[in-house]
Amino acid sequence: MSAYVILDLTVFDKEKLQEYKNLAPKIIKEYNGKIIVRGGQTNSVEGDWNPQRLVVIEFPDYETANNWWNSDEYRSASELRRKGAHTNVLIVEGT
User: Fold this and answer.
1) Helices 72-84, 14-30: inter-axial angle, 10-degree rounding
2) How far apart are CA 6 and CA 56, in angstroms?
3) Residue from 47, 71, 76, 54 nearest 5 by CA
4) Cβ(92)–Cβ(19) under 8 Å?
5) pLDDT reading at 85 higher than 90
6) End-to-end CA distance of the chain
């Protein structure tokens, strides 16, 4: 059963975020992840959620998504992300 990592980013340092974007895709691929949404236009049709930048990453399963998130490889990249954006993150199991 697939799992999805959903990141809602509010960018405050584009250079730091670019450094993150240069590293993260390779690490995601190493964990058999696939970026299925990165940026793009959004339309908040109900509620107060209006993300500035939304990213959705698909992984083969929930365990792999969590292993990626907690990996040493991703931890160093995520430090760059935190220096460039405030982020809300969910890992959710698909159906």
Assistant:
1) 160
2) 5
3) 54
4) no
5) yes
6) 6
The confidence score (pLDDT) of residue 95 equals: 82
Domain CATH code at residue 18: 3.30.70.100
Domain that holds residue 22: 3-42+51-93
User: Could you give the 3-state DSSP secondary structure of residue 12?
Assistant: coil
Closest CA to 89 of 1, 9, 3, 2: 9
Tell me if residue 11 falls in helix, strand or coil: strand
Q: Domain total for the chain?
A: 1
Of 80, 71, 79, 73, the C-alpha closest to 17 is 80
Pairing of strands 34-38, 3-11: unpaired
State the pLDDT confidence band at 47, using cuts at 50, 70 and 90: very high
CA nearest 63: which of 18, 94, 17, 22?
94
